[in-house]
Amino acid sequence: MSDQDYEHDAEHLDWQLDDEQSSNSDDAPSNEDTSNEDSSVDHANEQAEKGPQEPGSKQGGDDYRSDGERVNSLVPASEMLPERIYLLPIHNRPFFPAQVQPLVINRERWEETMRRVGNTPHHTLGVAFVGEQGVTSLDHEGFPEIGTAVKVHKLKGEDDQIQFIAQGLQRFKITRWLSKEPPYLVEVTYPKEPVDAENEETRAYAMAIINGIKELLPINPLYGEELKHYLNRFSPHQPGPLTDFAAAITSAKGPELQDVLATLSVEERMQKVLPLLRKEIDVALLQGEISEQVNAQMQDRQREFFLREQLKVIQRELGISKDDRENDVDTFRARLESLVVPERVQSRIDDELNKLSVLETGSPEYGTTRNYLDWLTSLPWGVTSQDQLDLPHARQVLDRDHDGLKDVKERIIEFLAEGTFKGDVGGSIVLLVGPPGVGKTSIGRSIAEALGRQFYRFSVGGMRDEAEIKGHRRTYVGAMPGKLVQAFKEVEVENPVIMLDEIDKLGQSFQGDPASALLEVLDPEQNVDFLDHYLDVRMDLSKVLFICTANTLDSIPGPLLDRMEQIRLSGYIAEEKLAIAKHHLWPKLLKRDNLTKKRISLSDAALKQVIEGYAREAGVRQLEKQLHRIVRKSAVKLLEEEAETVKISVKNLEEFLGAPIFRKEKVLTGEGVVTGLAWTSMGGATLPIEAGKVHSLDRGFKLTGKLGEVMQESANIAYSYTLGHLQEYGADADFFDSAFVHLHVPEGATPKDGPSAGVTMTTALLSLAKHHAIDRPLAMTGELTLTGQVLPVGGIREKVIAARRSDIFELILPDANKRDYEELPDYLKEGMTVHFAKRYRDVANVVFGR
């Protein structure tokens, strides 16, 4: 390219200077930072712009021999390259001498540098790789020692960028910095590349590189025919340019390529480039395999799509097929043939089918309407199952699935007997209330099996959105019907047994009140015309048998509780747990682990010890966990010790379960100590109460034990009643005048509350005042008024079970609870001595004697 071309480019960039200015050194780079290094930088800039003036040379990119004949050379001789050049930093990857490619740089930053290069006769620029260094943090120390001198061609400036074509010439080595600020100016040398082209090892490396490049070109679509022709200009006799070319076409990282560029020995350079080339080939082959797999999959899908479309056209022409819209309409109509759809629902379905038949299949409304019809036609309109109102069969199912719970079973049998005369048991809402693990959910399944009905269960615990019950509006994206509609679709009958688990744990939020939404579901007067928001048509829920479960009644809203028939499930006594473990839990665990009773045997005494020492809760969930623990440890013994059988008895039980969690509770005795009975959501419990005299300095009354407001009121009433009737019960009338009394309920960290401890607290205070200790196992419950009347309490069954569990067989109960006690099963009343009290005097007569 001639100097005139550069002058044209310079004019385009408004950089053209007249001859006088070109020959001056006024535009030399500033040397404010380098005055100590070189006092003649201006002269250096002038020499850099003039370039070498050697005999036999001509300015430009071509060489001339002494006879005047022009010689085209890819790389000019080193004598033609200037000793001072301007530097341009690049960031992505180094530039190699064998490269010719365009470069784009920032105009504002490097315009002055390129103007000065354009004013030099040799138009040579030094390109150096500086890696990830930013423009603001770039320092002359970040430049590498080795770079590439390039020839600048076709210099153009557009907007904020400068474009030019760089032709790699030769490596240079920086020997001296003349300007450490842009425009960077350095003195360089052009190191020789030691190579023996005739060496066999060098020729072998060169041939390997050529073969690698030829192998890479066909499998990488980025390399075109021009690059193949360019490769033909290299031969094994030119190992240096060949190696640089091979490195330049790889996608290796910048630091790796800079290492190659800085290696002057051609043989060492080829040793570094060959692995990079091999890696490039492997990546290209893998990329090709991935592309082939993707293309094959796409071709298969396209072929299948075209074949299906052709098949549709052929079938349509022959009149033997329908489009998607007609198929959907026919599918929905076919579903309705076996159903007895109410007239109002059928009218809505017909309207939606007519709308579906005119909508485009690709429209959003088509999808919404289709989903709506899919739900409407999937429901079991008019389909019911025949109830098996057979009481012997129901008793057999209940006895097979459950041990104990005799009163609960009788209550369910009564419920089914009533349905026998009515003809069905639909429209009823049964509420099973009891502690965790007593079998509420499994009883619901047994009821469904006894009736021969489909069973569907969902938990409402923690539910905060009423749309879970009544569905979403169809206008919302992702709208769905409520759980009840989903239950009908799954069970495919209109009269299933639907269990609403954990109904006492319903929540409320800004999204609505699910408990209020359940009123329409569970009210027999309203659920005949239940309206789901999504379906927007009336449904009949009166044939459904609803079974709800709860641990406690306190958190169930009154209007909802009023619509349910309550059946209480109390905790199990030790005998019932023993039967449940033998007949249900232990066989189930062995079967689940594919073991037999012959290989793992558990004695009845050991099983009873598990119940007494490790699982005293009201239910059997903890008992099942402990038995499972025994099975796991027994399996380890069978494998590691290669034993044929494992026998668990009372003697070796602690090897499997460790020390017992519960010890045999000793009933507390002494002056002022009385055992009470309490009810909790986990079942019944014994509750000892202690009263003690702290000092005689002053009258006072102190309460501890984390008591709730109700129990604090009971304690104050007990104190007042005792204080006013000391002489009546044979105690010192002046005892409390100077006594500071402390009333304590043990396990102080556990919150306690409830209206059933008044009698027990009064007895403890009177025992303290009379100095009379209760010397026999005796427990009591009941609330006391200020006039001495004993009021009834709840949870009699649970309290009797708790007393038996603690081996207390003498009880004092309110006279108003006599009926509750008489309704208990005989096995709970067996061996019990129960006194019924109308007034506190009856209690005192039993405790202290007449």
Question: Widest sheet: strand order?
Answer: 20-21-19-18-22-25-26
Per CATH, which architecture of the largest domain? 3-Layer(aba) Sandwich
Classification by helices and strands: alpha/beta
CATH class of the largest domain: Alpha Beta
How many separate helices?
29
Plain-language structure description:
The chain folds into five domains: 84-189, Roll (Archaeosine Trna-guanine Transglycosylase, Chain: A, domain 4), CATH 2.30.130.40; 324-378, no CATH class; 391-568, Rossmann fold (3-Layer(aba) Sandwich); 574-657, Helicase, Ruva Protein, domain 3; 673-848, Ribosomal Protein S5, domain 2, CATH 3.30.230.10. It is 42% helix and 17% strand. The protein is built from 29 helices and 26 strands. The strands form seven sheets. Strands 20-21-19-18-22-25-26 form a seven-stranded mixed beta sheet. It is elongated. The model is unreliable at 1-44 and 49-79 (pLDDT under 50).
Q: What's the layout of helices and strands?
A:
Elements: H1 3-12, H2 19-23, H3 41-50, E1 63-64, E2 70-71, E3 84-90, E4 100-106, H4 107-118, E5 124-129, E6 146-158, E7 161-179, E8 184-189, H5 200-219, H6 225-231, H7 239-248, H8 254-261, H9 266-318, H10 324-336, H11 343-358, H12 364-378, H13 391-401, H14 406-422, E9 429-433, H15 440-451, E10 455-459, H16 467-470, H17 483-491, E11 497-501, H18 514-522, E12 530-531, E13 538-539, E14 545-550, H19 558-561, E15 565-568, H20 574-592, E16 600-602, H21 604-614, H22 621-640, E17 646-648, H23 653-657, E18 673-680, E19 683-695, E20 700-704, H24 709-724, E21 740-744, H25 758-770, E22 779-780, E23 783-784, E24 790-791, H26 796-805, E25 810-814, H27 818-822, H28 826-829, E26 833-837, H29 840-848
Helix pairs in contact: 5-7, 5-9, 7-9, 10-12, 11-12, 13-14, 13-15, 20-21, 20-22, 24-25
